[in-house]
Design a protein that fits this description.
It contains 13 helices and ten strands. It is α+β, with helices and mostly antiparallel strands.
Length: about 425
């Protein structure tokens, strides 16, 4: 009885033409508010997920997930790498040498982080070979002192492939002529672009050349690790260091770049909270719609009560009507949000070409396009929370309708 009256009359009221056009306008406004709120929330969270994914793939594709190092050069790095690869959770290992310095070229000076690698091993731990825009990682040969660098750094130094650039080390040589800074000329043999801050600060050379620069006698400073689950990096690398013979100290991406990803997570949560308030406002517009509808339908409610409908039946009628309004707005908003989220990259590209401006300039931002990653669990969460807010919004008007006195309502009919 309850379900039959609530669903039948509630759906009929939803479809019926309103005598009061203002109520129809308020209902439409409520639906439009839900559509926009849900759609914007899905779009913004998808874009934030996209930026998070791009930063994770690009930055953590270039920097090591974790490293193990020792105070002395690792001469037999092959044995250490084999032992590291035998550890659970490690899918790649490669030796490295790293340092800092300054590049000088025709009066231009730029600080730089340099890294010595073995080209044959690099693909195991890095995305670098896949992001070369000029030259090739294979051009890094021991003893030739070739170097590759990020495209932003190359533009800042006005360098092209084949140019000679001087690396100034933050150390000095003591000679009979006095203290002389350590310098070494390199040939630019390649340029990479990963769309992250590393494009402006990182240079890559052969490990043996870097080892010679740092006077490590051809050894490696440490072993870079690639993990199957980067969020387990602190735990995995500590276990790796414990399993290795000798004294090793460790580092991982949560120490070097963890603050960046924590900031993205915090920003995403705050945006979601703020945008959910838009949905809440739209949902509670349903309160005014249903309150006005209760006033408009008092005579109908009184007739239903005289025919035997209980206060619970009447309450169910208006809950159904409010939920139908909310469901329509949430579903349409979800569809709109998903359509835009899946196509936002192409839409932004079209807008930039059509109006002749750049939203995310490559000269300013490290990611120069709008990435998007739709996570269906986010969409489901948004829909469920929105429906819960809608349900809460219907309770007071429905309760008010159930309290209508039939005799009072029909007195002047």
């Amino acid at each position: 009885m309850y379900q039959s009256i609530a669903l039948t009359v509630g759906l009929r009221y939803t479809r019926a033409k309103r005598r009061n056009q203002f109520i129809s306008f308020i209902s439409l406004t409520s639906i439009l508010g839900l559509i926009l709120g849900v759609a914007v929330l899905i779009i913004v969270l998808s874009v934030m997920n996209g930026f998070d994914r791009e930063l994770r793939q690009r930055i953590l594709g270039m920097v090591p997930h974790a490293t193990v190092q020792t105070s002395d050069p690792i001469m037999d790095w092959q044995t250490v790498a084999e032992q590291v690869l035998a550890s659970e959770g490690v899918v790649g290992a490669a030796p490295f040498v790293h340092g800092q310095g300054m590049f000088t070229y025709k009066g231009l000076v730029q600080p730089v982080m340099f890294q010595g690698i073995l080209p044959a091993q690099e693909q195991q731990v890095s995305i670098l070979p896949k992001h070369m825009v000029e030259g090739d990682v294979a051009s890094l040969e021991a003893g030739r002192f070739n170097i590759i660098m990020g495209d932003i750094l190359a533009r800042q130094m006005r360098l092209q492939v084949g140019d000679k650039v001087t690396l100034v080390m933050p150390e000095a040589n003591l000679t009979v002529a006095g203290i002389v800074p350590r310098l070494k000329r390199f040939t630019l043999s390649g340029i990479f672009k990963v769309g992250a801050e590393l494009d402006a600060s990182l240079a890559i050379m052969h490990m043996h050349d870097a080892s010679k620069l740092k006077r490590l006698a051809g050894g490696a400073e440490g072993i870079r690790l690639k993990l199957d689950d980067l969020f387990q990096a602190p735990t995995v690398v500590r276990q790796v260091a414990r399993d290795l013979p000798g004294a090793y100290w460790t580092s991982d991406w949560t120490r070097t770049h963890g603050n960046l990803f924590q900031a993205i997570q915090l920003e995403r949560r705050m945006l979601a909270l703020l945008l959910m308030l838009i949905v809440a406002v739209a949902a509670f517009n349903i309160v005014s719609t249903l309150v006005m509808l209760v006033v408009d339908k008092q005579s109908d409610i009184a007739i239903l009560r005289t025919l035997g409908a209980t206060p619970r039946d009447v309450m169910g009628i208006f809950i159904v009507q409010g939920l139908v309004i909310g469901f329509a707005g949430i579903m349409l908003g979800s569809i709109l949000g998903l359509l835009v989220a899946f196509n936002i990259t192409d839409m932004v590209d079209w807008a930039e070409k059509a109006f002749g401006f750049k939203i995310l300039s490559a000269d300013v931002y490290f990611i120069s396009y709008f990435p998007s990653q739709v996570k269906m669990d986010n969409v489901l969460f948004i829909c469920v929370v929105s429906m819960m807010l809608t349900l809460l919004a219907t309770l007071y008007p429905a309760w008010k309708a159930s309290r209508v006195d039939p005799a009072e309502a029909l007195r002047y009919e």
